[in-house]
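User: For documentation purposes, I need each entry recorded in a consistent format: the amino acid sequence on its own, followed directly by the corresponding structure tokens. There are two entries in this batch. Please keep commentary to a minimum and don't merge the entries.

Assistant: Recorded as requested. Entry 1:
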Amino acid sequence: MSETIVLRGVHPYGEAAADIVVRDGVISEVTGAGAGGGDRVIDGTGLIALPGLVDLHTHLREPGREDAETVDTGSQAAALGGFTAVFAMANTFPVADTAGVVEQVWRLGQESGLVDVFPVGAVTVGLGGSQLAELGAMAASAAHVRVFSDDGHCVSDAVLMRRALEYVKAFDGVIAQHAQEPRLTENAQMNEGALSGVLGLTGWPAVAEESIVARDVLLAHHVGSRLHVCHVSTAGSVDIIRWAKARGIDVTAEVTPHHLMLTEDLVRSYDPVYKVNPPLRTADDVAALWDGLADGTIDIVATDHAPHALEDKDCEWGAASFGMLGLQTALSVVVETMHRTGRLDWRGVADRMSVRPARIGRALQHGRDLAVGEPANVALVDADATWIVEPALLASKSHNSPYAGLELPARVEHVLKAGVPTVANGMVVR
């Protein structure tokens, strides 16, 4: 039996103060005030209570690149960011394209114990884009895979994409597509536009993303399957997804925190910390992403947390790897761009960062309401606090944060996963 924990004086979804009582991993009582004592009482006066966050898109690098991240260090970063569940992408070494590899990742998550780690299975063997991977075997494995993606690579072959969409229908899976037409992005380094010409960097046109999104929503509609669009970055993609949803097509989409906050202008520095796939876009694209997330066209925020070893980022722009950290800063960025601006209230934040991603990934114990009888996955957030991002102090093994030196709002103070504290007073606990 787990201990009884009382979260005293918290504000569920930023609303009226309440005491939340947790017993045996479940919320047993939500009272206006004055709940009895427990084995542990956490003073949550003034703190916002949210369901534990869920990240549908992370790169935990294990197996194969433990120099950049491990499942455990990534789990620490996730817990400190308010997450209780993360999905780990398949571009590991070896690739997570078999039941054996996804079960290895799942077990590493179980051993760490800080968050539930759900492996994402590769769509194609070795991410090669020519042969379907063992989708059924991964779905039937101990990892119970339901999300499949070749993230980092686009499933550009239309026939193969159709077959994948058809296949996953049998077990209620979803294909998460990295929308990038490969021929239109050969050697691409940044967003295509006037600035790429000035900087002398090969441009990455918006249409390279939008053309794949358009094709795939039509394919999903044709076969009656679920499609998820990873890291939407352009206004045109938002328009296409809005059009598809209006016609009843079963498509969902995500936006990253960095695409909500940062623009291509940062590339003027030639600092590879700003090199990311898809690239940082224009201010107009950012505004469209704000609108899309606010009105539900974009369903969720997902970090695309992409740690890299020092040598893969501390080099010239052309040689640097794509990607940036995101787990510990995600909530703060969403608060800054979406909550403080009035685009999302706290229930909206919970919806986009917990409820919907859990639903898309079929993480059934997560993204639940803060109500009696529900699993006690809870994050307590000090919305009034601010903090300075210092990459060297982040829990990740890597330090490639694009927010270095920035002051961000909102700090995660406590996290419970299934009623067990994983973060207390802003520190990881085990």
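Entry 2:
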Amino acid sequence: MNKVGIGIIGCGNISGAYLTAMKSFPILDIKGVADLNRELAEAKAAEFGLKAVDIATLLADPTIEIIVNLTIPKAHVAVGLQALDAGKHTYSEKPLGINFAEGKKLADAAAAKGLRIGAAPDTFLGGGHQTARAIIDEGAIGTPVGGTATFMCPGHERWHPNPAFYYEVGGGPMLDMGPYYITDLVNLLGPVSQVAGFTVTPRKERIITSEPRNGEHIPVHVPTHVAGVMAFANGAVVQIGMSFDVAGHKHVPLEVYGTEGTLIVPDPNRFGGPVEFLKKGGEFAEREIAAPYADGNYRSLGVADMAHAIRSNRPHRANGSLALHVLEVMEAFQTASTAGARSPSRRKRSVRPLCPNPSWMGRSAANSTISGGSSCVKHLSSGAAGAATNRRNAPILSATCWKRMASRSTSKTAPRPSPTHRSTISA
């Protein structure tokens, strides 16, 4: 296998999940880890048997093709631009940037250099969410009508060792957790066309109750309770609530309603979980998971997909266009709240992610390891996934054949992120 060299910048709390999951993907060859805090990098390198280097050395390494950017949100674009300037593809933790203008700057820079960008979340590639996507694509729920998306908790200062960045610009519940929910909804329903929203900041500071900073007061610079509505291009209207100010609730994370049925989707922060479907007139019943990568934490699945996409010259799925659209939607909630009006997106192209066709999968849902599978992709459409009426022409998720796809090419040119326009406020 022609492996792809990976460099990790940022060795904070999330890096452990990435480094653990990367062991599942043979195509990924981690060349080194770096952090502004050298001690943190050394500790993470020792834990995973890797080499700790400084950032400049990592960027200069000719064997590294992808920089995985695990820095705090407000550094995502700056580090991403450094990686692009060094001739590296870049994949970042969510969100892509702290605002749309920043994210578009990164996308434009990548397009100008002919390089790829990608961003978490990649959980929508998990078996639970791909199964939900297949149910919608087969028309089981009828015409999509609406849904609900809910993440509400008392705040991350209860458990995170360094939670201050959650309450700085680039943080808050929408930019922290919104990417999981909105990305999954775009995967399920297609792009968002309009947003209406309200935001609340009930406290000006938070008290950390986790160690080692227990008792420390941290200022709050972002809204911590966001409520709103997203209107999708296909006509569906979804209510969303993201909060760090709710003591408890009984909402499921994600529901999708159609004219013929209702779908309960797994937690978008996880790759698997139960998928429940109710056909009109019936009762909720759990559906069999029909896609792989549902049985664990595969955080870095998007990186592995990008690596295989580089080798086979095909589109990757957790791509810059998708991440930029999601960022635009999240920013629109604040814009709409401030202006007291709806914030419609001007985006013309569909950004719905590529999806699997079960007949082409070649790997059972029970066998979720990256190295398994006996068949390869037989078809990959070059176009964007269409609306519900054009499901048969949607591109596929080729999770089944990444080990063998390195020797194949499914497209002549690597895709470049398509630009999107900043949402404007309607009077």
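Summary note for entry 2:
Confidence is low (pLDDT under 50) at residues 357-427.
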